[in-house]
């Protein structure tokens, strides 16, 4: 328990140190976006140890066709601690990103960005190392200080802002009518309006998730299944 508390203190200090580097404004022109990467991770346990994989799928923003897929995998060195997921996931994210032969203009993460107790979800934290704009796209709501979100209208593109202490942390976004909303937030080097527009422009009939994130999610299931089967043999 003492070790865990020490880790929390160290992680919090680093998050607070990085926060002033975060910019909630566009560092790019919309027309310059060509390649968007989706990022997701999956985990499994084997012989009392935790393992994980990070999958990155890059699509052409205009055609929505897959350009490249890469993944990394390995033993997880940091335990799960609520609010500090980036420290658990970042090593695999950076390892996978190094394998890319195409340089994405923007990353969409299956997870939160600025919508985080200290504004340092995985999408925000990772952007400071990837040096690219990022967007957080979460399937479920991370409640912060017991603040709930308001359900958006049942219309594709409808949203409600998530406001905590008079500050907008993110959005509940209805990407498709009659389907549960997703939760988006700025990662870094992008504003919330552009984040919303880019997410909506990557929605098709197959999922409430934007295409890059959905494909990365599917890829994690495939890679995890491959490695768990390898370990069982």
Describe the protein's architecture and organization:
This protein is an alpha+beta fold and 233 residues long. It has one domain: archaeoglobus fulgidus dsm 4304 superfamily (archaeoglobus fulgidus dsm 4304 fold, 2-Layer Sandwich), CATH 3.30.2170. The chain has five helices and eight strands. The chain has helices at residues 2-18, 85-97, 122-130, 192-201, 211-232, and strands at residues 35-46, 49-60, 66-75, 106-110, 134-138, 159-164, 167-173, 182-188. It has an eight-stranded mixed β-sheet with strand order 3-2-1-4-5-8-7-6, sandwiched between helices. Strand 1 (35-46) and strand 2 form a beta hairpin. Helix 2 packs parallel to helix 3 (122-130). The protein starts with a helix and ends with a helix. The model has no long low-confidence stretch (mean pLDDT 95).
Indicate the topology.
Elements: H1 2-18, E1 35-46, E2 49-60, E3 66-75, H2 85-97, E4 106-110, H3 122-130, E5 134-138, E6 159-164, E7 167-173, E8 182-188, H4 192-201, H5 211-232
Parallel strand pairs: 1-4, 4-5
Antiparallel strand pairs: 1-2, 2-3, 5-8, 6-7, 7-8
Structure described in brief:
The protein is an alpha+beta fold. It has one domain (2-149, 184-193, 209-232): 2-Layer Sandwich (archaeoglobus fulgidus dsm 4304 fold). 30% of the residues lie in helices and 27% in strands.
């Amino acid at each position: 328990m003492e070790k865990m508390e020490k880790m929390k203190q160290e992680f919090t200090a680093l998050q607070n140190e990085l926060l002033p580097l975060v910019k909630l404004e566009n560092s790019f022109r919309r027309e310059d976006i060509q390649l968007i990467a989706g990022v997701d991770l999956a985990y499994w346990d084997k012989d009392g140890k935790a393992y994980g994989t990070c999958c990155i799928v890059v699509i052409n923003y205009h055609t929505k066709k897959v350009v490249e897929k890469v993944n990394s995998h390995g033993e997880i060195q940091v335990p799960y601690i609520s609010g500090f997921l980036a420290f658990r996931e970042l090593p695999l994210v950076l390892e996978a990103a190094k394998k890319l032969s195409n340089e994405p203009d923007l990353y969409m993460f299956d997870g939160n960005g600025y919508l985080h107790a200290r504004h340092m979800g995985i999408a925000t934290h990772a952007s400071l190392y990837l040096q690219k704009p990022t967007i957080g796209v979460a399937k479920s709501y991370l409640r912060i200080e017991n603040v709930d979100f308001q359900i958006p209208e049942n219309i594709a593109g409808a949203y409600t802002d998530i406001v905590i202490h008079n500050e907008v942390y993110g959005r509940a976004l209805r990407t498709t009518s009659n389907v549960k909303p997703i939760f988006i937030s700025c990662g870094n080097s992008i504003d919330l309006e552009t984040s919303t527009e880019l997410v909506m422009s990557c929605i098709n009939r197959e999922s409430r998730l934007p295409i890059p994130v959905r494909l990365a999610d599917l890829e994690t299931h495939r890679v995890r299944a491959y490695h768990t089967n390898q370990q069982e043999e």
